[in-house]
Amino acid sequence: MGRDIEYDCWSCDLLCAASSPDLYRINLEQGRFLSSLNTQSGAVNVVRRSKVHGLVACGGEDGAVECFDMRARSSVGRINAVAPAGGIDEEVTALEFEDGGFLMAVGSSAGKVLIYDLRSSRPIRVKDHMYGSPILDIKWHQTLNSDRPKLITTDNHIVRIWDPETGEGMTSIEPTDGAINDTCVFKESGLILLALDCSQIPSYFIPALGTAPKWCSYLENLTEELEEDAQTTIYDDYKFVTKEDLERLSLTNLIGTNLLRAYMHGFFIDYRLYKKAQSLSDPVAYDTYIEQQRKEKLEAERSSRITIKRKLPKVNRTLAARILENEEAEDEKKDADNAKKTSKKKKGLSSDVLKDERFAAMFENKDFEVDEFSQEYLSLHPMASKKQPSLMEEHFEPVMEDEDESLGYSNAQLLEEEEEEEEEEAGNGRHKAIKKSRVPRLYEVKDERHAEAFWNHVSLAKEDTLPLGERVAALQNAQRPSHGANNIKVGPGGSREISFVSRSRNKYNEDMEEKEVVGGHGKRRGVQSLGLKPDRFGPQGRGRGGRFRGKGRGRGRR
Question: Is the distance from CB of 469 to CB of 477 less than 8 angstroms?
Fold first, then answer.
């Protein structure tokens, strides 16, 4: 598709820029195509030729300007013209050489005009239209009123006339009938015609820009009659802001100063001050915008793909999900960067591992399940997982399946719920409204140690992962008595310490008899006074002792 044409009067060639890297040449004298000029840009938007030295400049959609010497038919220079203005992913939409041949004006798709000296790679002046619309046309206009030429730059909203050396604006034209498509300026005059999105072509006459053409000299008399002494103020390099914008930028303290000019329902502020305050109030706004644009582009590409629902295995679900996520991220990176395929040696784990029979037991047998909270796993993956189990999961365990069946909850229902949970996890965050039959689940505490820790809101995960040597050291330093017997001490990791004195049976019986004799007087009759220990003898021993004592008392009465 053609985009721009330029005539070379020296060789009678017509240069055509199109949506391709080639700059086509048509010789009008011979009536045939000549060999095209190859550029390094993906497509050429605009082409211009200098009438002084014959240099041809091409503006590409990658923001670069490349110059060709038609005598050698080769490139003599190439620069990124829009990069110094802070433009990213911008295009060159307008080009124009000065009549002197040394200056070149470049217009970008972001509404900025850059003036270059062909002897330097840095711009000498940057002018922002502050509308964000692409620059449509650039004209160097020489006036009779001044020695220096003026620049007339046009976008869809406004036509600006300004001094290229100082950057000061002379005047501007902002039509209200429609968007601007093109501009026509009569040479060495102040008459300007605009092509708008309407049926009429408005005309503007600016006496300061030049005299009226001969065929409409009556315009001079009209301007003399309309001339007034009062001069209107032009807010060219100013930004209109409201009071809410000033509060957002923390510039309300400038109200009443010469930095703000009240106008209608707001104020005019210097554009450079506005951009500086905006960057200070939100320094990462531009980076956030660029990142958001990239995410939207990736989301648009992702939505056009055919998504495949994958069912995660019951064992090592986290590992399987991580493998699938890494594979999807790798595919997205390849699509975004258009990179070459990496070799098999550099590839990580892919979804083929889930289908390989050699690794089938890894996702089916619970003996191969990866414990992400073990000491060995944490030493190899310090930042592996930030998710910690809750106190309920740590200190309690669910009841067995036969108990669930006694509550009327069948194994078939359990399997159905597990399948539904797998579908939810494999849906990449898509929530499905599935109504399930809810029944209460019962849990039981693991042991007395876990019950005490749960009562105190303490986690034992760190204590259980300690090595054996550290457990022994902690057992000596931090032993605490349990709620049971006094001679049992509880240590970290579920350890217990019991202290006792070993004695023979005869010695034990003698001590017990002495204890009965000493403690038998002056105390209330009971189990201890009879010498019957609940921990030592069972109910059968107490029964025989009772019958013996009853028989002895009967003989004494006879």
Answer: no
Helices and strands counted in the chain (H then E): 15, 27
Q: Which helix (H) or strand (E) holds 517?
A: helix 505-520
The amino acid that residue 50 corresponds to is S
Measured CA to CA, the distance from residue 67 to residue 37 in angstroms comes to: 11
Separation CA 411–CA 239 (nearest Å): 71
Q: Which of 153-157, 164-168, 215-219, 288-292 has the highest mean pLDDT?
A: 153-157
What pLDDT does residue 405 have?
Answer: 42
Q: Are 260 and 269 in contact (CB under 8 A)?
A: yes
CA distance 24 to 521: 127
Strand arrangement of the beta sheet that strand 22-27 belongs to: 2-8, 13-18, 22-27, 32-38
Count of Cβ atoms closer than 10 Å to residue 425 Cβ: 15
Neighbour-count burial of 192, counting CB atoms closer than 10 A to its CB (0-12 exposed, 13-18 middle, 19+ buried): buried
DSSP of 202-236, one letter per residue? -EEE-TTT-PPPGGGTHHHHHHHHH--S------S
State the pairing for strand pair 180-185/169-173. unpaired
Mark residue 145 as left, alpha or beta (left: phi above 0; alpha: psi -120 to 50; beta: remaining).
Answer: alpha
pTM (two decimals): 0.44
Strands 203-205 and 191-196: antiparallel
Spatial separation of the C-alpha atoms in residues 58 and 15, rounded to whole Å: 10
DSSP string, 440-504: PPPEEES-HHHHHHHHTT---HHHHTS-HHHHHHHHHHS-EE-SS-TTEEE-GGG-EEE------
Query: Whole-angstrom Cα distance, residue 134 to residue 179?
Result: 12
Tokens of 221: 């008399």
- Kind of pairing, strands 123-128 and 2-8? unpaired
Per the structure block, which two tokens stand in for 408? 């009327």
Question: 403 and 414 in contact (C-beta within 8 Å)?
Answer: no
Which position has the token pair 């964000």? Answer: 132
37-48, pLDDT tens digit by residue? 999 888 999 999
The residue count of the chain comes to 558
User: What is the C-alpha to C-alpha distance for residues 5 and 9, in angstroms, rounded to an integer?
Assistant: 13
Mean pLDDT of 414-435: 46
- Residue spans of alpha helices (H) in 338-467: 352-355, 375-380, 391-395, 401-406, 411-425, 448-455, 461-464
Residues 6+ apart with CB under 8 A from 513: none
